[in-house]
Amino acid sequence: MDVLVVGSGGREHALVWKLVQSPDCERLFCAPGNPGISKEPKVTCLGGAQLDVDNNDAVVAFCREKSIGLVVIGPEAPLVAGLADSLKAAGVPVFGPSQAAAQLEGSKEFMKDICSKYGINTAKYEAFSDVEAAKAYIRAEGAPIVVKADGLAAGKGVIVCFTEQEAEEAVEGMLVGGSFGEAGGRVVIEEFMEGEEASFFAVTDGVNTVPLVSAQDHKAVGEGDTGLNTGGMGAYSPAPIVGPEMQAQIMKDIVLPTVAGMREEGVPFSGVLFAGLMIQDGLPRLLEYNARFGDPECQTMMMRLESDVLPLLLAAAEGRLDQLPELLWSPDTAMLVVYAANGYPGAYQKGSAIGGLEAAAQDGAVVFHAGTTLGEDGEVVAAGGRVLGVGARAQDVRQAAVQAYSALDAIHWPQGFCRRDIGWRAIKRLDDDKF
Q1: Is the peptide bond before 268 cis (omega within 30 degrees of 0)?
Q2: Which of 328, 274, 268 is nearest to 98 (CA)?
Q3: Contact by Cβ (8 Å): 227, 209
Q4: What is the 3-state secondary structure (H, E, C) of 95-111?
Q5: What is the DSSP string of 40-93?
Q6: CB of 140 closer than 8 Å to CB of 126
Q7: 10-19 vs 297-304: helix axis angle to the nearest 10?
């Protein structure tokens, strides 16, 4: 079978890395891909000049020409733009939800309304497009409080406000100042939830649902989870706070009611549901949904998945997850550390050369490319904010961290930085359990 993966980041590199291990995958095309993806076996990367992934008709035509057996859509933007709908209408199997179902991620208000209607535990909220009405709500509820851009904002449209003034300024910035463009033309203001964050993933065909595993990521740019939010500075799987009983509760109280609710609404969700959770006193509450694999969580899950991933994604696309054998997962911990450009998540420079990549990918470590391109002399250069993800799998989180950082330190890139404390909560829990 020939497969097309849409996307160019670390998540897509991890999916490609795992897909090409399948004996059923004969050739894999990735559009647009990146230099790391292009080095994987069986892979051909297609730049924008070869295939414009923003043009749904062009993607459909390519799939027909190449007899593509499965399309895997990595990022959220093509989903919200309806790429899965176009492919499905053309009879091309596609892993990823329809445009309407992708509103679970594309609109915070839509997601919260689904939760409210179907009894899914989440924060109290209201949605606004009027500045004064939003400010009145903030004053009535008090701080801390959370202000979210309703639409897609590349993972940065959430502002946790510890004073009413901060919240009012956030609302002004979004609704008046256009700080998040069209995404912030409407805002959701919600209760601040305390506890420990975790991510949980499940694959569904709209009727049948298969639980995957948990992960925890580090959104803040600074060590100790301080500073500005980013797309994610690292992750590890599993999340110690999500044991078997918690996983069962998440499925029963959050994931399955969502799948049933979306079906009831006439917009069945097919693909991967990524639930961002806040857990306190043994109770999981839903922070948000994403309609695709998380980045960098996906990388850690692909490192732990021992089953062939291609049959899983194809079964979801074809509506037969109930026929899939049980998935096998390594009991090990997988960790990924993000190597980012200096200045990120603010302004950063592109074009700096990166060396030592082959030395880093030794002793079981994996280097996933996220924001790279090739320079004039064919060398790998930085082309984004989050540039690389360096991963390792080991018996426990401490060993995984040691191996991941050892591999990362083999890379020569003075213009980059990383957090040195990825996994600190899990390591602390490991230490506490010893006493």
Answers
A1: no
A2: 268
A3: no
A4: ECCCCCCCHHHHCHHHH
A5: STTEEE--TTT--TT-HHHHHHHHHHHT-SEEEE-SHHHHHTTHHHHHHHTT--
A6: no
A7: 20
| CB within 8 Å of 208: residues ≥ 6 apart | 319, 320, 321, 322
Buried b (16+ CB within 10 A) or exposed e, 222-237: eeebeeebbbbbbbbb
Residue 150, token pair as written in the block: 């309703």
* Span of 29-38, 170-179, 330-339 with lowest mean pLDDT: 170-179
Segment 269-309, tens digit of pLDDT: 999 999 999 999 999 999 999 999 999 999 999 999 999 99
Contact 246, 279 (CB under 8 A): yes
Segment 104-132 mean pLDDT: 96
The whole-chain average pLDDT of the chain stands at 95
Residue-wise pLDDT for 63-91, tens only, equals: 999 999 999 999 999 998 999 999 999 99
Q: Is the CB of residue 268 less than 8 Å from the CB of residue 101?
A: yes
Q: Are 179 and 158 in contact (CB under 8 A)?
A: no
Residues sharing a CB contact under 8 Å with residue 433, sequence separation 6 or more, in sequence order: none
Write the burial class of residue 329 (CB in 10 Å: 0-12 exposed, 13-18 middle, 19+ buried).
Answer: middle
In angstroms, the first-to-last Cα distance of the chain is: 52
Does the pTM surpass 0.85? The reply is yes
As given in the structure block, the two tokens for residue 37 are: 């993806």
With beta carbons less than 8 A apart as the criterion, state whether 333 and 394 touch: yes
CA–CA distance, 367 with 336 (Å, rounded to integer): 9
d(CA 119, CA 253): 9
| CA 202 to the chain's CA centroid | 13
Contact between 423 and 401 (Cβ < 8 Å): yes
The C-alpha atoms of residue 299 and residue 365 are separated, in whole angstroms, by 12
C-alpha 236/C-alpha 130 separation (Å) is: 40
CB atoms within 10 A of CB 347: 9
pLDDT given at position 308: 98
Exposure string over 194-214, b if 16+ CB within 10 A, otherwise e: eeebbbbbbbbbbebbbbbbb
